[in-house]
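Question thread 4412

I'm putting together a teaching handout and wanted feedback from people who do this every day. The idea is simple: show students a protein as raw sequence, then show them the structure tokens that encode its fold, then repeat with a second protein so they can compare. Below is the first pair exactly as I plan to print it.
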Amino acid sequence: MKADRKIKFPALVRDVKLVRSGTADALLQQDLKACFELGRIEGERSLSAQLVQQRAEVMELQTGVLSALRDAVPQVIRECERALVELAVEAAQRLIGGLPVSQEMIETAVKEACSQVEDSAELNVQLHPDDLALLEKVNSPLLLPQGGKDKITFHGSAQVTRGGCMVHTRFGVIDARRETKVELLKAALSA
């Protein structure tokens, strides 16, 4: 065998070191530490990128939740206002419905309705037949002729509910029925 054998490499070999048995383990350990450190650095970079992405996703979610809450609060307020209006109207209806119809109540309704009329020579006041009978029974001053004032006639009508009235003039009708007043109250509260 020849001691001078030539070995051919496909490419130029650089940084070749002579390895002795004791230093081979040390070089191997050094290479392992370098590889471990490189892997750790790449892992930290990857984890950092993932954390940045997750943080962005959480921020986007947080923004969406806050936006939804910001939009929901006015909606809840509107719904509560609507519910309060309905509650107030229903309470008013029950209070009014529970009141007994009296002479004073009928007279007040007629006076309020007639006060809305301007310059009308003839007024035709329609009352519920039972309300008209009550006013006649107690000889209400409303039924007496108004000396020199506008001509007012009273008639019973089944279209008018108890406690209310309708005043017909040549210009139109004033609806002073209880249910109409409740609807006007409801519309005013809803506005």
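The second pair follows. I'd like the answer to focus on this one:
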Amino acid sequence: MYQYNLSSARSLLTEAPDSDACFLTLLTSEELDQNPHLSGLEQILWHTPTARDARVCKAETHRSYLCGTIATPRQTKEQIPIAFGYLLTADQVILCDDSGVAHTMLHRVQEENPMMEKNVGGFFYAFLELLITKDMHHLQELEDQLTHLEDQVLAGIMDDFNLHMTALRKEVAGWIHYYTQLEDMVCEFEENENEYFEENDLKLFHLVEKRIDRLKNQAQMLREYGMQIRELFQAEIDIRQNRIMKILTIVTTIFLPLTLVTGWYGMNFAYMPELTWQYGYPAVIVASMVVVLVCLWIMKKKKFW
């Protein structure tokens, strides 16, 4: 468990914080289950959601605190889901994290935003801003993968298309759900029912909401792009099937007259003159070849292929 003083450049605390200071407490789900002693939070600490229970992004406003969870589509290198549980009061932040990402993000917030407001609202704005800062780059990578799939379809390389397309579609849908939930959570902050946030904090939250909305629109555009690629894939499949049916139709048309000839001479009537003619067999072969050539010439002239 770590405690940081938000009022003095987010310095690490080694003793109990001052009663007038804004401070942040970082702990894991296991540490939160042990119900640690935190001054001023004895009655509401157990309301803090754990990171392992985070499934969605949400904010719940209560009389004396604001709590919720943040569940991102990302994972650490060790395949640990990046998710957080949080509880806010007017001067305290409890952040539950099992991935270790929050500790790294706190140091980045301190390095990249040294002049930001040193209060609960200012910290949470910087935390959310850092949480989405690389998302546009990731969405661009998803778009590049979709473009690569489109190029493969146009080149006629369609092996495992459905496998790759389904995986990308699910990932894009996950990001859309994430941004929708995150946007609703920030809107709950903007309502400021407990009046924990100052006017400047609300303006900052509004900026974050706008950025999240742009990211959501980008993700929705990727979903539509994916649907267009699926339609292109289906069109290519239809074109291939049409080509096969065209070839089968041509072959059937060419050999249909020969089938008629075969039917005639398969009847074996007693007075068929060709049966006793010396050149009857070669004549039928020549006639069949002439029929095939005439059919091919007609189809070529009519531009059937």
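Top answer:
Good format. For the second protein you could add a caption like this: Strands lie at 2-5, 11-12, 23-27, 58-61, 66-75, 81-88, 92-97. Residues 121 and 197 are 5 Å apart (CA to CA).
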